[in-house]
Amino acid sequence: MNNEHPSTRILHSDRRGGVEHGAVHKPSHNAVTFGYPTARDLADVFQGGKSGFVYGRQGNPTTAALETKINLMEGAVGTVTFATGMAAISAMSLALLNQGDHIIASRYLFGNTASWLDTLSRLGVAVSLVDATEVGAVAAALRPETRFIFVETIANPGTQVADLAGIGRLCHEHRLLYVVDNTMTTPVMLRGHDVGAGLVVHSLSKSISGHGNALGGSISDTGIYDWTAYPNILPAYQGGPPHSWGLLQIKKKGLRDTGGTLSAEQAHRIAIGAETLDLRVERASSNALALARWLEGQPRVRRVLYPGLPSHPQHLRARELFGGRSTGRFGSLLSFELREGIDPFALLDALRIVVKSSHLGDNRTLALPAAHTIFFEMGPDKRQSMGISDGLVRVSAGIEAEADLIADFARAFSSLDA
Ligand SMILES: *Cc1c(COP(=O)(O)O)cnc(C)c1O
What pLDDT was estimated at residue 328? Predict the structure, then answer.
């Protein structure tokens, strides 16, 4: 076993895997199909007896090289990539669930994931949404037909931190599959394996890519879950060692059948972005913490939500979960609520550096009025039940110089005096 840091390993991963001409990057393999010298060779690849590629919808050497890097970062035994994070989540659930099954998910979910779970419930899968910051709420929702528990690490925009380790222990006790969406924390702050997750989800479009120039998603198997306990694995996928069953079914019934494939070009860009993930998370986290502290001192701000602030309800949990390998990293996401009567549009429009934009984990700092954008579709009643007020501003801290960011917000707040 190699004990190099994951950052070191991903930087040298392509080269060590063997790339033509000694190139340091895996090239973008754009071939749609792959030919073999004999029909027997082709049949062996089809039947899984030999490794290889057959048709681009099921992956290519460039996506495979990225999957190797995600394995290194997550300490996972296998990864399948997808065209987007939503393609990964929808394909994974379609592959693993049957009508009549039940799943438990956090009620503080990324909006499109929540929308997808609503679709699943229309297809005959029962969904319980619970407060995942309390393991007791998760335990109370368990049913005999519960197939998996799905949580995110830091919720958007409220920044609630789920009881990730507690839910991991609960799943272990009940031999339940535990799926953790690690997009907000990335493997440099938390590894799914360390909280007992069986599957780890990433939107590669966010911090892992970082440069806002590629969309992607992935599902990794940490090797923790015993798939012999999962009732929905089809006989065709039970041939190999049990740790491979789940991901094989996700690859066949998920990726292959839904066709949400990551392209080679996008995989290449994501892999380049991932090389600097550790540095970027460090910088974005320290910018977010500085901004959160500064905002807490502003009289026009009612409250600031950031796991790195001692005022955050799960601050101690966040320290424990995200502080292991490098202290003081609490991620790039923060939100703040303006006092009654202060117009978030006026504040945001006065910012010159911060981009008025959706998206998260970009190198540039982005901000939006949450109730009027990402939570507009659900309507005022649902927003109120989720604690999303009209004055809530969500910020995704980038990697600009800290002083420039604070100055931008200071200028915008003072413009409100005029
Ligand atoms: C963005 C996001 C997704 C979806 O990813 P896309 O790549 O945009 O499809 C899923 N989960 C979380 C937590 C996200 O932030």
Answer: 73
Determine the Cα–Cα distance for residues 17 and 65; give it in Å rounded to an integer.
Answer: 8
Average per-residue pLDDT for the chain: 95
User: What pLDDT score was predicted for residue 327?
Assistant: 58
Query: pLDDT confidence of 281, banded at 50, 70, 90?
Result: very high
Distances (CA, A) of 182 to 60, 82, 133, 268: 24, 15, 15, 21
Task: State the distance from the centre of ligand 1 to the C-alpha of 200, rounded, in angstroms.
Answer: 13
Count of CA atoms in the C-beta half-sphere (13 A) of 149: 33
pLDDT of residue 326: 53
pTM of the model: 0.97
Residue count of the chain, please give it: 418
Q: Can you list the domains of the chain with their CATH numbers?
A: 6-274 (3.40.640.10), 277-417 (3.90.1150.10)
Pair type for strands 102-106 and 126-130:
parallel
Question: In this predicted model, what pLDDT tens digit does every residue of 213-253 receive, in sequence order?
Answer: 999 999 999 999 999 999 999 999 998 999 999 999 999 99
| Confidence category of residue 88, pLDDT binned at 50, 70, 90 | very high
Task: Tell me, using a 6 A CB cutoff, whether residue 178 lines ligand 1.
Answer: no
| DSSP-assigned letters across all residues of 316-384 | HHHHHHHSSSSTT---SEEEEEEPTT--HHHHHHT-SSSEE---SS-SS-EEEEGGGTTTTTTHHHHHH
Does residue 396 line the site of ligand 1, with CB under 6 A?
A: no
Query: Average of pLDDT values for 48-65?
Result: 95
Q: Quick one: how far is CA 190 from the chain centroid?
A: 11
389 secondary structure, DSSP code = -
Q: What angle do CA 395, 399, 402 make, to 5 degrees?
A: 80
Judge if the beta carbon of residue 266 lies within 6 A of ligand 1: no
174 token code pair: 């009940």
The closest of 205, 180, 203, 177 to 190, measured between CA atoms, is 180
Q: Tell how far the Cα of 387 is from the centroid of ligand 1, in angstroms.
A: 21
DSSP-assigned letter for residue 255: I
Q: Is the CB of 86 under 6 A from ligand 1?
A: yes
The sign of the dihedral angle between the CA atoms of 165, 170, 173, 178 is negative
Adjacent-strand bridge partners of 221: 78, 199
DSSP, collapsed to helix, strand or coil, labels residue 54 as coil
Please choose, from the candidates 359, 9, 356, the residue with its C-alpha nearest in 3D space to the C-alpha of residue 214: 359
Q: How many CB atoms lie within 10 A of CB 68?
A: 20
What sign results for the dihedral spanned by CA atoms 141, 147, 153, 156? negative
